[in-house]
Design a protein that fits this description.
Layout: H1 18-39, H2 45-52, H3 56-84, H4 86-106, H5 110-138, H6 141-184, H7 186-200, H8 244-262, H9 273-293, H10 308-324, H11 326-338, H12 343-348, H13 351-371, H14 373-400, H15 407-430, H16 438-508
């Protein structure tokens, strides 16, 4: 296939060429699998417990190991893709993810399963920054908005469909092979994705990313490196450009910050990790500044945070994830523990939200370059309306006997809101990022989301279980959702600030 470093438009400003469709197809299928593995596990944990005689601590690590490994490597993996070529790191991540899935599905004990989940998390952490980097590299303008719209739809569907699929597999194959199939199902898709990557990713995807294109210009790999004899046999001389000291400092800092929130079984002493992690991150910032002053390429160019759109967009989505991702955790707890529904029913209640997200996100992607930040703010309007109506439904369920299934409608509004927030914000946030930092910039943004998710779930579930013993499920649900609503209001306020700053900047210019 010819090199598609600067793939032209097809027949319209937002139409994809056949090369772009193939690139996007490979990237989005893999992104779906990696994000699905976050949510599908929740409903198969009881089956794992009975099958492997796993302790509660071992079950916690099934979730924790994946989340920690995923979050720790995101920035380093994004930078590696910038330096060595996104195709290389994409395939390396696929190999790790596929191998981890295979071992997890065949695991004979809890330790093997948890080690496999860590490998899966590392693979996902390698993959996800390459997906956003590839979209930055091969799509521009309205095309990029549409591509990020499809990516946003994939995120919403993978999170919501995971519990449904996990419950269905257990119902179809039984407890033993139901949980195993939730991992093994990844393997054939990974094999196909590796073949597709070698066949469909253009040559420039296997080379270092360069270029300074602005927000409305194609990312053209203006000065690609000369071809190398082997896609994986070159590039070791660039180890110094990967900034190994920065990789260790940021990775350790992210791990230490996340650990108290995802592994509370370690006791009160685990909270000492939090200040230690913040200290590591402070050291990392100092080291990155030193690298830049010395004329070396840092792991992350901190000047990126001087770009209003990047900083505001990263803060906005991190605050949003701090609250909104806890919705599905609280909902699953209430549906199963509070109302006695099955895991499959608890998963099905989120299906309209997933469908709404899948339908609306691509539409939003087509219009984000024309409408801009107001489109994201409309999303916050839908999200806040959905949260408010969900609180009302639960209050009426207990006071007037209203069916809990009315939540299908309110959660669908939240799905519309997420579709208008996630992918459009991603397009705006990365619009002015230079191509040579597209991977690491996307990794920083996703790391913020992972850390915020860990903190948010720990905080919101902590509130739920604090209120529950004394006041019951009605108040526990309402208080938890009210806290989520306030957090989402705060995220929307960041969007309003960004809109005002952007308009003020245009007037000044």
């Amino acid at each position: 296939m010819r090199d598609s470093a600067a793939i032209p438009s097809a027949t319209g400003p937002d139409r994809f060429t056949s090369e772009q469709r193939r690139i996007l197809g490979v990237a989005l299928i893999v992104a779906f699998l990696s994000l699905l593995s976050v949510s599908i596990v929740n409903v198969v944990l009881p089956s794992i417990e009975s099958s492997l005689a796993a302790s509660s601590a071992a079950l916690q690590w099934v979730l924790t190991g994946y989340a920690l490994a995923f979050g720790v490597v995101l920035v380093a993996a994004g930078r590696a893709g910038d330096i060595y070529g996104r195709g290389r790191i994409f395939v390396a991540g696929l190999v790790l993810f596929g191998a981890g899935s295979l071992v997890a599905g065949l695991a004979g004990d809890a330790l093997t399963l948890n080690l496999a989940r860590v490998v899966m998390g590392l693979g996902s952490g390698f993959i996800n920054p390459q997906v956003t980097g590839l979209i930055q590299q091969y799509f521009a303008g309205a095309q990029r908005g549409r591509a990020f719209g499809l990516f946003g739809g994939i995120i919403g569907v993978s999170v919501a469909i995971g519990p449904v699929l996990g419950g269905a597999l257990v119902a179809l194959f039984g407890a033993e092979w139901g949980w195993r199939s939730s991992f093994l199902v990844n393997v054939p898709f990974v094999v196909l994705a590796i073949v597709g990557a070698f066949l469909w990713l253009p040559p420039s995807a296997w080379q270092a990313a360069t270029g300074q294109a602005g927000p409305d210009q194609p990312r053209t790999d203006a000065a690609p490196e000369p071809p190398r004899p082997s896609r994986f046999g070159a590039g070791l001389h660039r180890l110094i450009d990967l900034d190994p000291v920065g990789v260790v400092l940021l990775g350790a800092g992210t791990l230490l910050v996340m650990l108290p929130f995802v592994e509370r079984a370690l006791g009160a002493a685990v909270w000492l990790c939090l200040p230690a992690g913040l200290g590591h991150i402070a050291l990392w910032v100092g080291w990155e500044r030193r690298m830049k002053t010395a004329g070396r390429a840092p792991m992350v160019d901190l000047d990126l945070f001087r770009t209003r759109s990047y900083t505001n967009g990263t803060v906005l989505v991190s605050v949003y994830f701090l609250g909104m991702t806890s919705v599905w955790v609280v909902l699953a707890l209430w549906m199963q523990s509070g109302l006695g529904h099955t895991a499959l029913a608890a998963g099905l209640i989120g299906l309209p939200s997933a469908l709404a997200n899948a339908v609306v996100a691509p539409i939003a992607g087509r219009h984000i370059t024309r409408i801009g930040r107001p489109l994201v703010l409309w999303g916050f309007g839908f999200a806040l309306t959905g949260l408010s109506l969900s609180i009302l439904v639960v209050a009426l369920h207990y006071s007037a006997g209203l069916s809990e299934w009315w939540l299908l409608g309110s959660l669908a509004l939240q799905g519309v809101g997420q579709a208008l927030i996630i992918s459009p914000n991603q397009t705006l946030t990365l619009a002015e990022v230079p191509l040579r930092y597209a991977g690491s910039a996307g990794g920083v943004m996703q790391t913020g989301q992972r850390v915020a998710t860990s903190i948010g779930i720990a905080m919101i579930t902590g509130i739920t279980f604090t209120v529950l013993p004394a006041h019951g499920w009605m108040l526990a649900f309402i208080v938890s959702f009210a806290v989520i609503l306030l957090i989402v209001v705060l995220a929307g306020a960041v969007g309003l600030v960004d809109l005002a700053q952007g308009r003020r900047g245009r007037r000044t210019h």
